[in-house]
Every structure is written in structure tokens, then in C-alpha cells.
Amino acid sequence: MVGRRRQRIRRGGLTADPVRTRLISVGERMPGWVAEGVADYRKRLSRDLPVELIEIALGHRGKNRDPQRAIAEEGAAVLAAVPKDAHRVALDGRGKPWSSEQLAEQLSAWRMGGRDLALLIGGPDGHAPEVIAQVHQSWSLGPLTLPHMLVRLLVVEQLYRASSLLAGHPYHRA
């Protein structure tokens, strides 16, 4: 990283740089309770796993407009927001479901990989094929259809839970 030093984090005898995480999400204006929850978990994560929320405007949809065009617009904007060398993970119903413990293992691997992380949440019609083609992993939160705004809150809570597991913090009680 040029121009800034990363604080080193010590975990179980190993030293790793904190992973800067971008949560890139299609859709704007979260309901207040979602925004408060996301802000709370981002604050809890700020030292070990700083999370930056990037909101992408929905592609224009309407009666006489091809929905694929809106999806393509959203996909282009999502990809433009991804840092150059970041490890890209799409939140996608067809992705791999991880338990909290498995997510903690993933987080540990991402930290040791030394790359920043971009978690991508698509719009109401999912991700553009161009986005899926450029991700390193796809993560499913399960078979339920979830409101995209709620996915933001679930993701940051699960990141906090995974970080707590790795730190030996009692937040996670399995």
C-alpha cells in the first residue's frame, strides 16, 4: 500500500495486516433500522476489519426499458467500485453457503492473503454476468430470498461474528 501504513494485528502468534473491506451494494437509502445496525457493526469492526460501504444506484427500470440493460448498468458500476487488486466475493444465492465457523476460516485466509476484500451485493435482479465472471468466490446466505438492504446488515454482523471467533471473543456462542 502506497501512502499509508497498515496497523499490524497479532492473532495467535501470527501477524497480519488488517483487511480493508468494501461492501459494494446496489441500492441506496437503507431504512433507518438497517442503517443503524450496519453502522453499529462497522464501528465494532473498525479496528480489526474496517468496512467501507459503497452504495451503487439502481439501474433505471421501467415499462419500455429492458431489465437486462439495468442489470448491466449496475454491474458496470459495481465493477468500477472494486479496488484494483481486491479479492472479490459475490453475495449470490447460487454461491457456497458458509457456517459462521467456515466464514471465520475464510476471513483468516483473506487476512493472510494480504489483499483487500470486496463483497458485492447485487440489485433486485441479481448480479450482471460480467460481475459473476470476475469474482474469486460466491457466497450464499442460504436458500431464502432476502431484501438486499437486509443482506448488508447480515453480512456485517457475520463479519463481526467471524472476527470475534478468530479473536477468541465470547460474542459467538455455538
Structural overview:
- By secondary structure, the protein is of the alpha/beta class.
- It has five helices and seven strands.
- The longest helix has 20 residues, at 148-167.
- The strands form two sheets. A five-stranded parallel sheet has the order 4-3-6-5-7. A two-stranded antiparallel ribbon has the order 1-2.
- Helix 3 (100-113) packs across helix 5 (148-167).
- It has one domain (18-167): 3-Layer(aba) Sandwich (Alpha/beta knot), CATH 3.40.1280.10.
- The N and C termini lie far apart (37 Å).
Short key terms for the protein model shown above:
alpha/beta, five-stranded parallel β-sheet, two-stranded antiparallel ribbon, disordered N terminus, 174 residues, Alpha/beta knot
Quick summary of this structure?
The chain is of the alpha/beta class and 174 residues long. It has one domain: SPOUT methyltransferase, trefoil knot domain (Alpha/beta knot, 3-Layer(aba) Sandwich), CATH 3.40.1280.
- Approximate strand percentage: 15-25%
Mean pLDDT: 87
CATH architecture: 3-Layer(aba) Sandwich
- CATH homologous superfamily, by name? SPOUT methyltransferase, trefoil knot domain
How many DSSP H or I helices? Answer: 5
Low-confidence stretches: 1-15
CATH class: Alpha Beta
H and E string: EEEHEHEHEHEH
Oligomer: single chain
Biggest sheet, in brief? 5 strands, parallel
Strand order of the largest sheet: 4-3-6-5-7
What structural category do the secondary elements indicate?
A: alpha/beta
Question: Taking Cα atoms only, what radius of gyration do you get, to the nearest Å?
Answer: 16 Å
Q: Judging from the principal axes of the Cα atoms, what is the shape?
A: globular
- DSSP E strands, number: 7
Helix share, percent: 25-40%
- Whole-number tally of structural domains: 1
